[in-house]
Design a protein that fits this description.
This protein is an alpha+beta fold and 334 residues long. The protein is built from ten helices and twelve strands. A hairpin with a 4-residue loop joins strand 7 and strand 8. The chain starts with a strand and ends in an 11-residue tail after the last helix. 35% of the residues are buried.
């Protein structure tokens, strides 16, 4: 499958053009919206222009048989927050340099890749869910021109328009980033109120990632003590853990599958996800059940089983303790 990708421009005046440049060639594949960091269109895809030069994309991808090829001429700064699934990008830059980028569930990615082409593919059978914010560097400069001292030096020249070199940063997603991305996914406002809410959340996501970069440059941010190899193992363990909510592996089975001790795996989950392996599984089950309650016609018993609970009574109590409301507010139990 070959898809040549570029960004549709939103044009301002000639002197101060803010937007994304490009075109799309689609060879027999549904691509309602494409941005450089992936093609998400098989299940749900929403692209919202919040203002010229600022775009929010909510992306979900279930199946992708073959890699998709893309090309970008003029790049925005892309702030991407990966909530589920693992993807890989093989990127070739205009100067001939090649990069490989693997984005795991729980990672936050910041990219600036002008004059780039490459390919994109899924690395596992998990549904890919991500929230991305694309912003023109000129527009970002307008937002932050009064706080120059708080902008990471690694981005300063790009934002000021003096540097067109490539930039990429992959870090673990902090809990505030994750919570804000989930608020975007769960937004139920309509019309103008929704636009205002999502623009605020998009800017909040940008601010959180810029703050993390700035803290890193100062040497004062909290980053994982795990090695890159162990981080990959923890991300892989995450995908194995949530693959089958009804029959997940035990802690020792999971640790063995990824080549870690169970204590180090639990420590890794605490650093990345803020809780132990099975503390995370319990929260994941409840959040998955919450999505089913809101977006499916299944009854409470069916949802409890799908989320891995042994019975609806246990599920209802856990749901009430976690969310503060019983699941029956969404539907009646059989």
């Amino acid at each position: 499958m070959n898809v040549d990708i570029d960004m549709v421009p939103e044009r301002g005046n000639k002197k101060d053009d803010v937007g994304f440049a490009g075109s799309v060639h689609n060879t027999g594949y549904l691509v309602p919206f494409i941005h450089w960091n992936g093609v998400y269109s098989l299940v749900k895809d929403e692209s919202l222009i919040l203002r010229p030069g600022l775009r929010l994309c909510i992306s979900t991808l279930k199946n992708l048989e073959n890699p998709i090829r893309f090309s970008v001429e003029r790049s925005p700064l892309e702030f991407c927050f990966n909530l589920s699934g693992t993807t890989r990008y093989d990127v070739k830059h205009g100067n001939g340099r090649k990069d490989e980028c693997i984005a795991y569930a729980g990672s936050s990615v910041l990219n600036y890749y002008p004059k780039t082409n490459g390919s994109f593919e899924k690395c596992d059978d998990q549904t890919v869910i991500s929230v991305s914010v694309d912003i023109d560097p000129k527009l970002l400069n307008r937002f932050i021109e009064t706080i120059a001292g708080e902008i990471p030096q690694s981005l300063r020249r790009i934002i000021d328009g003096y540097d067109s070199s490539y930039f990429s940063s992959i870090k673990r997603m902090t809990l505030p980033m994750r919570d804000t991305a989930l608020q975007v996914l769960e937004c139920n406002q309509t019309s103008g109120a929704r636009q205002i809410f999502l623009e605020g959340k998009a800017l909040e996501l940008i601010a959180l990632q810029l703050e993390n970069l700035e803290l890193e440059e100062r040497g004062s941010s909290f980053f994982s003590s795990l090695s890159n190899m162990d981080l990959k193992k923890v991300y892989h363990a995450h995908d194995l853990l949530v693959h089958d909510l009804q029959t997940p592996p035990s802690l020792f089975e999971l640790a063995k599958a990824v080549g870690m001790t169970h204590t180090r795996l639990n420590r890794g989950f605490r650093e990345i996800y803020g809780t132990t392996v099975f503390g995370y599984l319990r929260k994941y089950r409840l959040e998955y059940a919450d999505l089913l309650l809101k977006d499916s016609a299944r009854n409470i018993t069916e949802i409890a089983y799908a989320a891995g609970f042994s019975d609806s009574s246990h599920f209802s109590k856990a749901y009430l303790n976690h969310f503060g409301n019983p699941p029956s507010i969404y539907r009646k139990s059989n």
